């Protein structure tokens, strides 16, 4: 009955807000106008689904390079929506699940969402949820098919659902023919310019202005590249490693240069 | 016994009519004479199967690009038939089913249909029912074989069955050798000309004539294409997104241009 | 015991005769001398197996394009034999069977046949029984191997068995190395000439002589082909569709022309 | 205990002699000196294994084209050996067995043989026992590995075993790396010359000398080949078919010519 | 409860220290400055994870040729950390585990680690844990996916985890797309120069200075190579073999030369 | 407890000695100095593992062509070691085992060995144990991985283990990446020269000196080859076959020539 249903929904919601906030432990640094655009685009879809006369199902894919901040941005959009039901679906919650268990877990999450008048499901790291590996290639087709069908399954009358998914394998999703199952998609960029990188270093409060200057010069020297192209998550982690080193600025430029180089060869 | 059998049939029927009408929530907009031809062709097959002296089994495949309106058209033909038994078979009803469960579900639906003197089964999205994915390629051969056999299995004496199937992967169905198992096929087109697109915009009641004009011009400008080639479902959804934007006409032309571009590169 | 055994055999027989006659609901139209040759060849093998001193096992494969009448002709030969045990084995009787169930069903049918002094087994549509699909290619090897072994397994002393199999995938059966397991094979042709097509139209009683003439001319015009090459089953079904149309002759020529064209491109 | 063991062995033996004799229902026609050589070679290996001081395990592979008489010749060698235990292992005894059941059945047969001081196991049609199919290719690796190991497994002290296997896929057995597991091999030829064919026709007692002459001339005419190259089993079966025809000689030459032609194209 | 939890953690810890020390039974010979660098790098990451305000999860991959000392170095870093929970996860602990058992075992180890405020997990020989074999290639995708997810799964609030993994198949890990899941990586070299080799021989205490000299000269002579390129583990084992030989120096140079040659051809 | 453990070990040992001696029923004929070298190399490794201060695990692979005597030589080395625990692991002991049973059996053997202070495990015919077949190729990866891990798993403190494995597929083991898991390897040759062959014939006591001379001349004549290249096992078996023939020398040269020819074409 209805009260029972409410019971089921509430804890699910409570738990997930905590989980979503964990994704944001590095905050959102507005190092580029793209970040604001992404959040605005997210807000627009949140409003569309909220409208009682619109199609009650909408799905958006956030895609970008590894560590670029996709999960944090999806979490931010979800939390800011203030919808009554928000749920993070992440591969980390399915460790040790076999294909059938994954399929059932996914169905269960959607069934729960259908009980709330308005819901957001954040489906994180789709290529990991479907056990993608490029050798073979192999993946769980039954999980993939389940997701594809859930992406087009209309919620029951009077229920509305927004799906925010993330991936760093857009081309894989295209090959798997699931990319077109999304109603819209939002690209998430790396930290690309030295100005953006400086902005992040500043916000971290770990470097003196001179250290920032010296560090960036070293990166430029080592990489001989005008493009940084490193994800915000790696940069924040590199700052932490650098803090352990006596020569913090050099350690940081070393870590970042290596990341830049890896990008160039991959 | 007979009364029991009737019991089983009735609810099945009731439920499905609701389901089929859900497929039509955007109505049928007669934006092109093709739409009328498709519905007329459907009516002809409905009449053929109704004849007591004709072959009691006939199958038709509606095929066309994604979002072109295949499901809605099949639902419309089925509802207008006024046959006593109509059943929608959709991948969404089989979420979490394994191969065997799918095979049994399909058999059950046909067994139910055989109990009614005249039946229509709408088998939606065959490539999804058989878990098709282009990488591999992989699909459920046991589900595929079951469908192939059910497409040629004569109903019991005195029972008549029309099967309406949909797909947006005609060439896949040809490769799988199931295409020829259908007795006839009907192609479903995209919204292709700017006139057709204007017609749809008008019917939506969301745009002023000036907005329509401006929007179409922008699409033409951005895409440099004389062909629209976007499915009716995407267009109707794009209108909904546009409604959230302050500059509705530009947002609409943006969404449509992107859809046109994707068509050109896929 | 013996009486029990008889009990098992009788109903099996009764049921199958009805099933076989269902395959003949369009009758046998003698539209070409080939049809008579096929039936004569069948009679010869029926007589050979009947002889008490001959090898007690013989197998024949009827192969030809889809819808060419293979099943009907095999059924006709079987019914005319007046053997005490006749059984149709068709993929339609095995919907939802897994590999093991199919293997057991096939074994059971042969065990039943071995109980009768003389038997015919009609094994319809072998490629469907083995779940053949050209992508992969995939098929049930355990079902295939079972059939191959049953085709060479001598019946018990004093029992005689004729196997009539059908396929529209002769080359597939050759690749699967089962083609050579048959002792003989009979090709079944399409309706190939306009004279043959006219003969079928006439026999259907649906067309006036003028309609026939006009229809054939239209087909010639549209297809620009001197060869018809369409299966008798499709032609009979096309006549039924045509009957629903106000302009029956044109609808018929349309349906047939499309069938001719498909043949040319496949 | 010992008496129990004897019990198990005896019926196994009784049954198999009947089975082996069934393989010889067409007798052995000495249509060529090769036939005598094959039987002599078989006798030699029978004697070698009989010697108490020789290696207690020996395996021979009879290989040749389909229908060339391999099974009959292996049966003849086994029956003439007068060993106390002879067992025919044939795919026909394993219809409906899964891989594990086959492996167990094979092990059981060898266990039974190890109980007798001297044994012959006739393993008929190895490629069928391992479920070989050229598409894929596919086969049962667990059955194959079991056979390979059983071919080299020494019998218990004081027990001696001769294995006679047959195949018409020598090259397959080479690819599967099992060919070298045999200690020796004997090729079995087709009926190759017209003289050999005449000899077989004569022995059948079905033809007058004139019929033989006419029939052979017709085959020569039709095939334009100086080589017959047809298996003895097909020839004997062709004689039976011919007997049903009014014009026996022509029907026979027709059947044989077709067999010759098939050989040339395969 | 807490005391129970402590109970679970303690024995796990005790056992693992013994296991880790077993990996170090050949000690750490400082034959090159690289060895010191590797240990220093390890210490830095140990300190980073120890910091309460840093990201609570960090993973490092030690990669290098077979026998180069990867496991010993990872063990050394772990033991020197003096973290309260250290656990070695090695393929040798999972002999006979099926995929599911491996996945559960791995999850269990991480669950145990999450109970301690600070933990190190040494995951030895990843390619063996995932059952990698180059033919196919084949590997356990479910184990691989589990590891990939566990490498990014945040520990519960207040718990900190450092993962040290080893592999001698870096390129395989790159192909499997798991290489980038590590936050950092450390290459481990072979014993490469003759000076390094002499250092190891000396430390073993098995050779006189003359023997060392003669042995190295022989290796140079035989291999004609200025590069040794042999793993420390193979060298230590070669010394043991040499000790059994009357002419210890020659036996040693023989063993080493063969190892050098194998490197050159692989 | 300890006495129980002893109980388990003893019978295992008793049984295996008998099994190992069975592998030596043809004795060891010292037809070439290579044979003595192989046995000496084996003795060296036996002594190395016996030393209490050496690494307690060592593995050696004997590889060579089929029938070259690998199993007999490994058995000889094991028996001569006089270690308290010796166990032969052979595919023949695992007939009918599935993958899991094989893995468990192998683990059990190693567990048993770990109970004895010093042990030798003879792992015969590795490619057969892993169910290798070149078509596919297919093999049991779980068995392979188990062996790879057992080859590097350190025995418990105070226990010492020597592993002697055999294969005639060295290159396969290299492709499977297991070849490098062995600490050392010993090649086993064929009987290669006519002198070696004469030596074997002489030792058999079956031929007069003239027969030997004549036989060898015939082989030279037929094969036109200065190289024999046939395994000792085939030669000894050929002598047995020859004994059944009236003309023993010619039969022997026939058998050997055929073996030589097969070598040349394989
Ligand atoms: N502008 C920003 N956008 C996104 N994340 C940011 C931003 N600024 C700071 N962050 C922080 O950076 C981290 C981004 O990590 P996140 O896990 O979202 O990346 P990701 O792209 O999902 O990585 P992965 O490819 O591993 O899934 C978070 O800790 C987040 O709080
Ligand atoms: N002429 C039309 N034909 C079809 N659908 C129309 C038409 N006019 C309006 N619609 C509406 O457009 C939508 C078509 O969506 P539908 O699901 O049928 O498309 P589809 O081709 O089946 O999509 P998919 O490829 O995702 O299966 C429906 O909401 C329907 O009511
Ligand atoms: N000469 C004829 N030969 C065969 N069938 C005929 C002939 N004349 C009329 N028919 C009718 O044509 C139909 C032939 O259909 P049938 O199912 O036998 O074809 P098929 O080749 O087996 O088709 P499929 O390829 O689908 O298995 C039957 O209804 C049969 O009664
Ligand atoms: N010289 C002969 N050699 C073998 N069989 C002969 C000979 N003469 C007559 N026959 C008869 O010919 C038939 C040979 O059939 P058999 O089953 O042995 O052939 P096969 O090569 O095993 O066939 P398949 O390839 O189907 O296994 C038997 O009926 C046998 O009695
Ligand atoms: N500098 C060193 N670095 C590493 N190991 C050393 C060093 N000096 C001596 N050793 C000894 O060498 C051996 C190295 O073996 P270890 O198992 O660590 O190598 P590995 O690279 O992990 O081998 P594998 O590729 O088989 O996993 C250990 O016994 C270790 O005690
Ligand atoms: N010098 C020798 N070396 C090895 N075996 C010998 C030698 N002299 C005689 N023999 C005998 O030869 C036979 C060798 O057979 P064995 O099974 O060991 O060969 P193998 O190489 O293991 O064969 P396979 O490739 O089939 O495993 C044994 O019977 C053995 O007693
Ligand atoms: Mg993420
Ligand atoms: Mg649809
Ligand atoms: Mg048919
Ligand atoms: Mg045979
Ligand atoms: Mg290691
Ligand atoms: Mg051996």
Structure description:
Six copies of one chain form a homohexamer. A five-stranded parallel beta sheet of chain A has the order 2-3-4-1-5, with helices on both faces. The first copy, chain A, is built from eleven helices and five strands. Chain A has 266 residues and is of the alpha/beta class. The first copy, chain A, has two domains: 2-187, P-loop containing nucleotide triphosphate hydrolases (Rossmann fold, 3-Layer(aba) Sandwich); 194-265. Chain A has helices at residues 2-22, 33-50, 70-81, 99-114, 126-129, 141-152, 170-175, 194-204, 209-223, 232-243, 248-265; strands at residues 57-63, 85-89, 118-123, 160-167, 184-187. Helices cover 55% and strands 11% of the residues of chain A. The A-B interface holds A 44-45, 47-48, 51, 54-55, 58, 100, 103-104, 107, 137, 139, 141-142, 144-146, 148-150, 152-154, 175-177, 180, 183-184 and B 22, 66, 91-92, 94-96, 98, 128, 131, 133-136, 138, 236-237, 240-241, 243-245.
């Amino acid at each position: 009955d209805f009260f029972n249903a409410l019971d089921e929904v509430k804890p699910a919601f409570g738990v997930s807000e905590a989980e979503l906030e964990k994704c944001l432990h590095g905050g959102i640094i507005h190092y580029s106008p793209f970040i604001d655009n992404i959040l605005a685009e997210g807000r627009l879809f949140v409003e569309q689904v909220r409208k009682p006369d619109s199609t009650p199902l909408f799905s958006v894919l956030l895609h970008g390079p590894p560590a670029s901040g996709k999960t944090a941005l999806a979490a931010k959009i979800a939390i800011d929506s203030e919808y009554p039901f928000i749920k993070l679906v992440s591969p980390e919650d399915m460790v040790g699940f076999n294909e059938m268990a994954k399929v059932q877990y996914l169905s269960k999450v959607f069934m729960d969402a259908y009980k709330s008048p308005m819901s957001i499901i954040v489906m994180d790291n789709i290529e990991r949820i479907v056990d993608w590996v490029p050798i073979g290639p192999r993946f769980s087709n039954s999980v993939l098919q389940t997701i594809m069908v859930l992406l087009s399954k209309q919620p029951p009358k009077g229920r509305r659902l927004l799906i925010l998914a993330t991936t760093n394998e857009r081309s894989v999703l295209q090959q798997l023919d699931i990319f077109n199952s999304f109603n819209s998609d939002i690209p998430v960029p790396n930290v690309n310019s030295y100005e953006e990188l400086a902005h992040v270093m500043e916000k971290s409060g770990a470097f003196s202005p001179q250290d920032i200057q010296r560090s960036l010069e070293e990166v430029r020297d080592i990489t001989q590249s005008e493009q940084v192209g490193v994800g915000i998550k790696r940069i924040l982690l590199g700052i932490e490693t650098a803090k352990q080193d006596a020569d913090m600025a050099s350690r940081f430029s070393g870590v970042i240069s290596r990341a830049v180089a890896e990008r160039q060869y991959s």
